[in-house]
UniProtKB/TrEMBL annotation:
This is Class I SAM-dependent DNA methyltransferase. Pfam families: Methyltransf_25. Signal peptide: none annotated. The keyword Transferase applies. Keywords: Methyltransferase, Transferase. GO terms for biological process: methylation.
Length: 214
């Protein structure tokens, strides 16, 4: 098994196991986070009503559905079939497909936007240049990417969430490092937001949001 397939298999296995618990736990998260809602509103305005956007690593489709409600033409992609089952159930009017962010099925320059909402956090650092090059490939000139991630240098290792016998690493990144990688892939970062952790949500580190233009 290759290193790439190792981390993809580990990620898929983890989220297949916890999909229903994860969806229930984070169901009302946007209502508690005005920063998220503000970033989504900004992003939707930049892309424009009807813009074709792929939510990559969409999980249970919470972000996909919210951005669709703001007027974007959304689709979702995820490794986990269990997560996709939840996404399809809760967003019956949207299209969700199984696949990897590292090998997108979209044609070159076919999208107005891509979203990676806490989904690049399982990609090893040496694979991020390829990931962002793939984002750039599928975007039209002037298209926008939206990324969210936890800020830091050290990964978090999560063991047995909700009692399930699985574990996974969650990589934290620096906004400067991520912005540099996006620039190397052909993006210009238009917005960089870092907020303090929310203790009520059990957040331990700051959270970052980047909006970049192809």
């Amino acid at each position: 098994m290759t290193e790439a397939s190792d981390f993809l298999t580990a990620t898929r296995t983890f989220y297949d196991a916890i999909a229903e618990d994860y969806a229930d736990h984070f169901r009302d998260l946007h209502a508690k986070l005005p920063w998220d809602r503000a970033v989504f509103a900004l992003y939707a305005e930049l892309v424009g009503v009807g813009g074709k956007v792929a939510d990559l690593g969409c999980g249970p489709g919470r972000v996909t559905g919210h951005l669709a409600s703001l007027g974007l033409s959304m689709s979702g992609l995820d490794l986990s079939e269990s997560m996709l089952a939840v996404a399809r159930r809760e967003n019956p009017g949207l299209r969700f497909e199984r696949g990897s962010m590292l090998e997108l099925g979209h044609e070159d320059g076919s999208l107005d936007g891509v979203v990676s909402w806490y989904s690049s956090i399982h990609t090893p650092a040496d694979r991020l240049p390829h990931l962002f090059a793939e984002f750039r490939r599928v975007l039209k000139p002037g298209g926008h990417a939206l990324l969210a991630f936890q800020v830091g240098e050290e990964p978090r290792h999560l063991e047995q969430p909700w009692g399930h016998p699985v574990s996974l690493d969650f990589h934290r990144r620096t906004p400067e490092g991520m912005a540099g990688l996006l620039a190397e892939a052909g993006f210009s970062v238009r917005s960089r937001t870092v907020r303090a952790p929310e203790p009520e949500l059990d957040e331990k580190v700051p959270q970052a949001y980047l909006v970049a233009r192809a």
